[in-house]
Write a structure and sequence with these properties.
71 residues; alpha+beta; TTHA1013/TTHA0281-like; 23% helix
């Protein structure tokens, strides 16, 4: 079972964008703080009423967010 849900973050033209690697989640925010709150809400909504073992997730998974920096 996975203990971590991975989220990829990158900067768009106006907003930071987060896309789930392990779950079908996409959200955005003007700041990284706003984005973190949106990711937390999106993950909660995605997992609401789901059987986590069917998704191969532990009962209390952590969220790992990776930020892509442009060179």
């Amino acid at each position: 079972m996975k203990n971590i849900i991975q989220i990829h973050i990158y900067k768009g033209e106006k907003y930071y964008i987060a896309e789930g690697v392990d779950l079908p989640i996409v959200t955005q925010g003007k700041t990284l703080d706003e984005l973190a709150q949106n990711v937390k809400e999106a993950v909660g909504l995605q997992l609401e009423n789901e059987d986590l073992s069917a998704l191969d997730l532990s009962p209390h998974p952590s969220v790992l967010m990776n930020l892509e920096l442009s060179a």
